Amino acid sequence: MTEPRPDDTVSYYSPPPEPRPTWSQDAWNAAATPSQWIEPYPPRPSQPAPARSSGIALVVVAALLSAALASAGTYAALDVSGAINAPAPAAAVTGGTAAASSSPQQVVTINEQSAIVQAAQSVSPAVVTISTQQVSSLDPFSVPATGVGSGIIYNPNGWIVTNHHVVAGATGTIQVQLKDGRTFDGTVYGIDTLTDLAIVKINATGLPAAKIGDSSSLEPGQLAIAIGSPLGTFTNSVTSGIISALGRQITVTDDQTGQPVTLHNLIQTDAAINPGNSGGALVNADGQVIGINTATASTAQGIGFAIPINIARPIMNQAVKGEKLSRPWIGIRFTSLDPQMQQQLKTPIDYGAYIGPADATSGQPLIEPGSPAETAGLKAGDIITALNGQRVDSAHPLDMLLVTYSPGDTITLNVLRNGQQLTIKVTLGTRPASAAQQ
């Protein structure tokens, strides 16, 4: 405020004094105002003041006193309510940017890009490139061709899971190259009789091993990351997409025999998978292997397939234990029922494994002679509705349930036969290498 000069004509308004409110007196007595809240008022120059300036000084002093009292009252009210010492609100982190949140707990949203980077850093050292010399069995006089694919170190003592077709027909030594540049000679420990899987062994210890996840809880739309060596040249390439669908069935041609082979219960993904990616890892956002890349749809883009890791897990464990790779076998040919198949086959229910229908062109029986199914008394036309209490349906198909058991295990089947519910016990056999059924 500017002091008026002595010759200025000014008028002042001084409101009549009012009594101090009771709450302000209580607040003043309750807690003293911190000194740092009030800046010291600068002293006036020591010079005679005009006679009429006494009114201005009185107004200034009154204003300061009023402000001090108001501040004291505000502080006391906030102190009593607990607002002064209240903790700051938590931050909600979304995509790396903090935003205010009224929740007392911190909420963190996973950044997709960070998840991909971390998953790749975690799994890539365990993804190897496998090179083989191959001769086609259809032409034994052909010049050996170099095959290339990928594999996953799942045990630090040199155990690698890959695709059967990556090492099928290999002659001589298999070369296994790690991401760090080390190269080892490998041997095929065993071939899976159920799926396109194989186990390769190298003589090494202390190797980087991938974390193995659980494919039973996958859902379409989840993040999927493919890691492998496309074309055998671009080693440890990382692509990403989503889980497009589950339970897919495809038919591929066996490179060695030229015969069609049907693969069941596959994961479909749109993460880019190319030749050379076969046997590589399909990884979730937590950096866990949930599938083994195996095939692509040649007539479309963005359609790739992987074998769920839960199907591979039994033979992976058998290899580490030094056991021969084997799969349980029941010896039936069946159709998985759903509402569409129910209408087509005229079955009484829309779930389960229907032993049938007979295929006149194949000439193969629905119940394999001498099989565990025949011994247990299963018949054509039966519908298996549950296995050891687990309902058999599209989410839990019979073949997926069977792979979790070992040859020699005895299971209990609930069977619907001609409208009657039966309970049948079956002791599982060992699946023959040439078996085309469970």
Describe this structure in words.
This protein is of the alpha+beta class and 438 residues long. The protein has three domains: 22-79, no CATH class; 108-325, Thrombin, subunit H; 328-430, Pdz3 Domain. It is 19% helix and 32% strand. It has a six-stranded antiparallel β-barrel with strand order 4-5-6-9-8-7. The longest helix is centred in the first third of the chain and has 28 residues, at 54-81. The radius of gyration is 38 Å and the shape is globular. Residues 1-54, 56-61 and 86-104 have low confidence and may be disordered.
User: What is Rg?
Assistant: 38 Å
CATH class of the largest domain: Mainly Beta
CATH fold call of the largest domain? Thrombin, subunit H
**Biggest β-sheet: count, sense, barrel?**
6 strands, antiparallel, barrel
CATH architecture assignment name of the largest domain: Beta Barrel
Any key phrases for this structure?
single chain, about 450 residues, alpha+beta, Pdz3 Domain, 3 domains, six-stranded antiparallel barrel, globular
Brief sketch in words of this structure:
With 438 residues, the protein is of the alpha+beta class. 19% of the residues lie in helices and 32% in strands. It has helices spanning 22-30, 54-81, 112-123, 164-167, 309-320, 339-345, 372-376, 398-402; strands at 91-94, 97-100, 107-108, 127-134, 145-155, 159-162, 170-177, 183-191, 198-202, 211-212, 223-228, 237-253, 260-269, 281-283, 288-296, 304-308, 328-329, 335-336, 353-354, 383-387, 390-391, 410-417, 420-427, 429-430.
